[in-house]
Amino acid sequence: MDLEQVIDLIRSKPPLLHLVLTGRDAAPEVISLADTVSEVREITHAYRKGIEPQPGVDFLSGAGSDRFRLKFNSDQVVNTRKPA
């Protein structure tokens, strides 16, 4: 998805729908639409212990998995749910 598609998705979602976006370097336009933005800091990671990435945990896999992938380059979690 490109940035405009993500912004359209955020603006057109139902009011009570929780929308969580993950990634790195979220665009300022996305951050400004969010209710909550958090930075995630690695403390420990399985990969550093030699454990290979797991499908469904570390990445999406299977038929249609590419349809739901929102990719930003950010260590930020963006929740756009507005309070009722």
If you had to describe this structure to a student in words, what would you say it looks like?
19% of the residues lie in helices and 18% in strands. The chain is of the alpha+beta class. It has a 4-stranded mixed β-sheet with strand order 2-4-1-3, with no helix packed on it. The protein starts with a helix and ends in a 5-residue tail after the last strand.
Compact overview of the structure:
Helix content is 19%, strand content 18%. The protein is α+β, with helices and mostly antiparallel strands. It has one domain (3-79).
Q: From the alpha carbons, calculate the radius of gyration and give it in angstroms.
A: 14 Å
Q: What count of helical segments does DSSP give?
A: 2
Tell me the major beta sheet.
4 strands, mixed
Number of strands: 4
Q: How are helices and strands ordered from N to C?
A: HEHEEE
Low-confidence stretches: 66-77, 79-84
Strands side by side in the biggest sheet:
2-4-1-3
Percent strand equals: 15-25%
Averaged pLDDT, please?
75
Q: Give the N-terminus to C-terminus distance in angstroms.
A: 28 Å
Question: How many domains is the backbone divided into?
Answer: 1
Shape, please? elongated
Q: Indicate the structural class.
A: alpha+beta
Helix content: 10-25%
